[in-house]
Amino acid sequence: MERKIIITEDGSNSISIPELNVTYHSVHGAILESKHIFIEKGLLYQINQSTSKQINIFEMGFGTGLNALLTLIESERLGQKIYYETIELFPVENSQIKLLNYCELLQRNDLQKTFEQLHHCDWEKEIKISETFYLHKTKETLQNYKTSAPRNLIYFDAFDPNAQPELWTEEIFKKMFSMLEPGGLLVTYSSKGTVRRAMRSAGFIVEKLPGPPGKREIIRCRTTINGK
Fold first, then answer.
1. Which of 187, 181, 221, 226 is nearest to 203 (CA)?
2. Staple partner for 72: which of 14, 15, 133, 221, CB 3.0–4.6 Å?
């Protein structure tokens, strides 16, 4: 499938797939969206709630690597050790990686080589990216992905339910639920009624939150703690 670089409203680049009528991030701002949903409502919220010395994250869809980059920045800022596992069946091409302007807009040009390392480091292997951030990338579908390690947090960043309905089912969310430790969180941009119902049927406690620019609501859901 053809993938094109696009410029979103906050000036940050993203990628579109015309054939599927989807973009990797919100056209209203790639960085704004990722910071709001995955960092502020996911990572920072979970760090404040968790007593774990290490935060274990699973990301559905590595994509442009923006979520991983923002998480790495926070891990170093806070001195928080993070183990980050992600799956991606169709990695972004090198020619397009070079056009992603996240480090420049974040005023972190010092991280450009690190950002490229996130993309180019070995797959199917744990890689130490920094003293606080470890990355493990897997080329696999979500349906076939297997792990035994419990997670504190899931970034569920699959393509829109209209484009990939098979990834937004009760069966998939039951799998996500089983991957999380008690009190673990899942955050995602989609707040469709069918998605919320699938999450609740899988056992999640579902919370609607205000969204980033251009998005009225997002979802943060969690597993129970001691039955609550």
1. 221
2. 133
